[in-house]
UniProtKB/TrEMBL annotation:
Species for this entry: Lithocarpus litseifolius
Similarity-based family: Belongs to the PC-esterase family. TBL subfamily.
Transmembrane stretches, start-end: 21-39
Stated name of the protein: Trichome birefringence-like N-terminal domain-containing protein
Molecular functions per Gene Ontology: O-acetyltransferase activity
UniProt-listed Pfam families: PC-Esterase (PF13839), PMR5N (PF14416)
Ranges where the record places region Disordered: 54-82
């Protein structure tokens, strides 16, 4: 990665082309300082520029019909436990499915909560309250191809979680995700916020009648990082990233968590100076610095190896999900050049390809997680992949777009407003991530 690349500023075609093998970060990287505001901004801030480099499409991710096969059950397959019972074996094998392969199907029942019933929806993601005019995006359900995915059952979930503790560990998409869970659970019990950090990025809630604790920890790199951004996300200096040190913000609390949902991703695209062994070893996109360009993929892989090794070798045995990278859907331009996401329907499988950046990141995630699952299973750690990338690629209609702001067109219907095509409306498609989480907690051994 990182060499011989071209910048292509053409609007992204609906059908992403497949002829670009490399990605040019040039122009987009220059703007990255501003770009990532949303990932770091808190709910009270009005930030104007969206995150993320938008790269022209890479080679098409081949339409894989096989599964990413990473979230394997810790137990040996039943077929090897009961080899003598042919009937039983074949039935169970037939039952196994990849719940991440499927389609979005129309679902009249609609979301489990609304802007009225849930009070913890961050302003930027509260599409209903902000005046998003269409509501069709609320009436879809993820339908795995070869098995049933039940809707999230809040009562059952809270009963299972009595005296337990969960953490969502990652960037602002993890906060987006935890808010979805809080909203779904609020049908049964309202959470009490018991902690927040100064910037309201990390929080903790308690469900008193179930003695269930839910946390979100903001650690966008998962590893140690010095980030020099002001409150608007404008960077005054390069990020210093320590590729051989974990971020203690989450590792110090790790032993308290029975379950964790960990995710990395987009922050690794930013300009950063890489440190290893108390020494600067290179960087990602730092022209003029006379440092070796190591590429974000190098840093991301190192970081994931460190994170996953910490989990699999830890004395504390948690049930850990690693969530794969989340796609965005800027079209008709980039995040900084008027890109938007005004579709109102999901894509069907085959109508869209995963973008280059997402393919690169997810491939690293699958490879590293697959190795860690094997290692972890030997140590009694349950590690599963929450492979939401592909199903999320199919939901261009689920982002706030201009409705990250309250009534963006109230004064001027042609107003030029910054779009958010990365985070997800609440309610919205991200609610399905929790359907998947619950099913994997309850029936994980059923899936490949
Ligand atoms: C095999 O499995 C079937 C279905 O679960 C069960 O009815 C049957 O008793 C089993 N046979 C043996 C030999 O375990
Ligand atoms: C919820 O959204 C609707 C529009 O969908 C709006 O009329 C209503 O005022 C919103 N309620 C709150 C509490 O924001
Ligand atoms: C939860 O903890 C309380 C107090 O320690 C204990 O009495 C109760 O049995 C526990 N419940 C479960 C389901 O573990
Ligand atoms: C709540 O759960 C914690 C374990 O997470 C346990 O130590 C504590 O005793 C429980 N408290 C009550 C009141 O059940
Ligand atoms: C520090 O990194 C540079 C560049 O990679 C290398 O040449 C040098 O030997 C390293 N120094 C130490 C003390 O590791
Ligand atoms: C870049 O670094 C190399 C070795 O670290 C050094 O030989 C070279 O002079 C440096 N170039 C500039 C322009 O500083
Ligand atoms: C979506 O945005 C594009 C470009 O900004 C515009 O041409 C198109 O008409 C929009 N579609 C809808 C349905 O608003």
């Amino acid at each position: 990665m990182g060499k011989g690349m071209r910048w292509d500023s053409k609007p992204l075609p609906l059908h992403y082309k497949h002829n670009h093998i490399f990605v040019k970060f040039g122009v987009s990287i220059l703007l990255l300082g501003l770009a990532f505001r949303l990932l770091s901004s808190d709910s009270t801030r009005i930030s104007s520029v969206l995150e993320e480099t938008h790269t022209p499409p890479l080679a098409e991710a081949e339409p894989k019909t096989d599964s990413p096969v990473v979230s394997q059950p810790i137990q040996p397959p039943l077929s090897s436990v009961f080899p003598e019972n042919e009937t039983q074996t074949s039935e169970i094998v037939a039952e196994k499915c990849d719940i991440f392969m499927g389609d979005w199907i129309a679902d009249e029942s609609g979301p489990a909560y609304t802007n009225e019933s849930c009070h913890v929806i961050e302003g930027h993601q509260n599409c209903m309250s902000n005046g998003r005019p269409d509501s069709g995006y609320l009436y879809w359900r993820w339908n795995p191809r070869n098995c049933e995915l039940p809707r999230f059952n809040s009562e059952r979930f809270l009963d299972l979680m009595r005296n337990k503790s969960w953490a969502f560990i990652g960037d602002s998409i993890s906060r987006n995700h935890v808010q979805s869970l809080l909203c779904i659970l609020s049908q049964v019990e309202q959470a009490v916020e018991v902690y927040h950090d100064e910037e309201f990025r990390s929080k903790r809630w308690h469900f008193p009648s179930h003695n269930f604790t839910l946390s979100v920890i903001w650690t966008p790199f998962l590893i140690k990082a010095a980030i020099f951004e002001d409150l608007n996300g404008v960077s005054s200096s390069e990020i210093q990233l320590y590729l051989d040190k974990l971020d203690e913000k989450w590792t110090e609390q790790y032993k308290d968590f029975d379950y964790a949902v960990i995710a990395g991703g987009k922050w690794f695209l930013k300009t950063a100076i890489y440190h290893e062994n108390n020494n600067i070893t290179g960087c990602h996109y730092c022209p003029g610095k006379n440092l070796t360009e190591l590429g974000f993929a190098y840093a991301y892989r190192k970081a994931l190896q460190l994170v996953l090794n910490f989990i699999t070798s830890n004395d504390h045995k948690a049930f850990v999900f690693f969530r794969t990278t989340t796609p965005d859907h800027f079209e008709n331009g980039e995040w900084f050049s008027g890109g938007n996401c005004n579709r109102t329907m999901p894509f069907k499988e085959g109508e869209v390809d995963m973008r280059d950046i997402d393919t690169i990141m997810r491939d690293i995630e699958l490879e590293e997680a697959e190795k860690a699952v094997e290692v972890g299973s030997g140590y009694g750690v349950i590690l599963k992949l929450l492979d939401t990338t592909r199903l999320s690629v199919l939901r261009p209609d689920g982002h706030p777009g201009p409705y990250r702001q309250f009534q963006p067109f109230a004064k001027d219907k042609n107003a030029e407003v910054q779009n958010d095509c990365l985070h997800w409306c609440l309610p919205g498609p991200i609610d399905s991530w929790n359907d998947l989480l619950m099913e994997l907690v309850v029936n994980g051994e059923k899936y490949r």
